Task: inverse folding
């Protein structure tokens, strides 16, 4: 079986259409700025108070669904891509196998939640940015990118969806998101623990892995989709990140790059919209 | 009947104004609105899926954010299905206001979220009976979000879904009953 699968070769049936992060970022439209009273909201956070709450929740749920598929593929590839013992300890691969099992369950839960909310598999484009972070040829970088950055984003997303279910009074959504959130906290912790253990005597490799994590964190800020600001649809779940082993400094860093990504996106949108008016 | 689509040329999305007008004409004919002028204004800078309607006896103005007409699988591209559905919803709502029993309904901006959801159920149920492809579960989920997740709420949803003709006050009473039943 092939090792180090590139993102272009992910297996999908005809229901799916994949887009890259670069394609998504080229879209010059935005819910951020207010052109008129009627055309924008004061907050973009996904909450039941939004007039388009159901559509927004369905879109985010589909994003979670494809994210779970890619997380499953990422964890599974880590079990296969690296030689046991020489490149990755057996216990690390066992943890990744356990994570793949969790992600497979999350995919099934997400499909059922999608049915419950009235969406269809493949109804929305699949952004492949998550798997792109899982393509590193160093298992430590992969742990930093997937378990710490990607699963960290999953904590933020699940917290937003769990709160949505709680406020809307949707018992299934709240319950399912809460259980998946618990798994994601474990996955982040796994990544944090292995990152420390594997690089214990290799400070240079640890530094490289943390730098890679920072890059991925910025990438996963999705041009401001996730931040502390109400202008972002997904909030930063500080408490659950803390439980997952993020230090205060690390949470602050994510908050900072997320705000930076939001501001960069707003500036880019403003520029594009001004150019269109000229 | 004249139909205008603004803007005529799109910069942020790959939409086609004449094609949109043709879809609107088809929908207007299907709904018996071919004697009213229709203006469609697309806010192409917004990816949201919101649609607003202003209805007067001689003119209907539909303001749609681009997300309402978009192919969500191929972002920024227009979807015939989404365009047809969004315009059908908007024009049927307008017909309710000018020719149905909804003249006393508050303006769109003054409607409560539960009222909007109940009206939308009444609209998409009729479109479904006209042969349009409708996701009933999506409509039910939105109704539950606005009225509560309870069997009694689902019962009211089914009642609204099956009604062919009603008035604003009757529909609002159904919605209020669902919200109260949940509590």
Result:
């Amino acid at each position: 079986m092939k090792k180090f699968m590139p993102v272009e070769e992910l297996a999908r049936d005809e229901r799916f259409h994949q887009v890259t992060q670069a394609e998504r970022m080229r879209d010059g439209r935005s819910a951020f700025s207010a052109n008129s009273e009627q055309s924008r909201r004061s907050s973009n956070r996904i909450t039941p108070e939004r007039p388009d709450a159901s559509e927004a929740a369905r879109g985010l749920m589909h994003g979670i669904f494809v994210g779970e598929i890619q997380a499953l593929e990422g964890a599974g590839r880590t079990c296969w891509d690296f030689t046991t013992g020489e490149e990755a300890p057996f216990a690390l691969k066992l943890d990744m196998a356990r994570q793949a099992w969790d992600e497979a369950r999350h995919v099934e839960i997400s499909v059922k939640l999608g049915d419950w909310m009235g969406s269809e598999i493949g109804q929305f484009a699949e952004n492949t940015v998550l798997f792109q972070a899982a393509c590193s040829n160093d298992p430590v970088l992969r742990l930093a990118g997937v378990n710490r950055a990607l699963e960290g984003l999953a904590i933020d997303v699940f917290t937003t969806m769990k709160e949505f279910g709680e406020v809307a009074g949707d018992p299934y959504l709240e319950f399912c998101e809460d259980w998946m959130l618990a798994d994601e906290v474990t996955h982040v912790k796994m990544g944090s623990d292995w990152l420390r253990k594997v690089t214990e005597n290799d400070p240079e490799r640890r530094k490289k892995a943390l730098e890679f994590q920072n890059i991925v964190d910025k990438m996963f800020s999705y041009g401001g989709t996730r931040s502390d600001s109400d202008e972002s649809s997904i909030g930063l779940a500080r408490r659950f990140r803390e439980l997952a082993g993020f230090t205060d400094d690390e949470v602050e860093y994510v908050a900072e790059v997320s705000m930076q990504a939001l501001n960069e996106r707003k500036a880019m949108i403003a520029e594009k919209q001004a150019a269109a008016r000229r | 009947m004249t139909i205008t689509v603004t803007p005529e040329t799109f910069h942020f999305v790959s939409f086609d104004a004449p094609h949109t007008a043709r879809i609107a004409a088809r929908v207007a004919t299907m709904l018996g609105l071919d004697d009213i002028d229709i203006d469609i204004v697309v806010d192409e800078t917004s990816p949201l899926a919101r649609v607003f309607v202003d209805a007067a006896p001689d003119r209907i103005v539909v303001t749609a954010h681009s997300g309402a007409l978009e192919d969500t699988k191929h972002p920024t591209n227009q979807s015939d299905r989404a365009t047809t559905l969004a315009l059908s919803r908007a024009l049927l709502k307008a017909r309710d206001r000018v020719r149905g029993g909804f003249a006393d309904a508050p303006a769109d901006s003054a409607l409560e979220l539960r009222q909007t959801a109940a009206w939308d159920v009444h609209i998409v149920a009729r479109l479904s009976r006209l042969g349009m492809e409708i996701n009933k579960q999506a409509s039910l989920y939105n109704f539950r979000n606005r009225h509560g997740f309870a069997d009694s709420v689902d019962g009211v949803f089914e009642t609204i879904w099956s009604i062919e003709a009603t008035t604003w006050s009757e529909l609002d009473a159904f919605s209020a009953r669902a919200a109260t039943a949940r509590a």
Notes: The two ends of chain A are 54 Å apart (CA to CA).
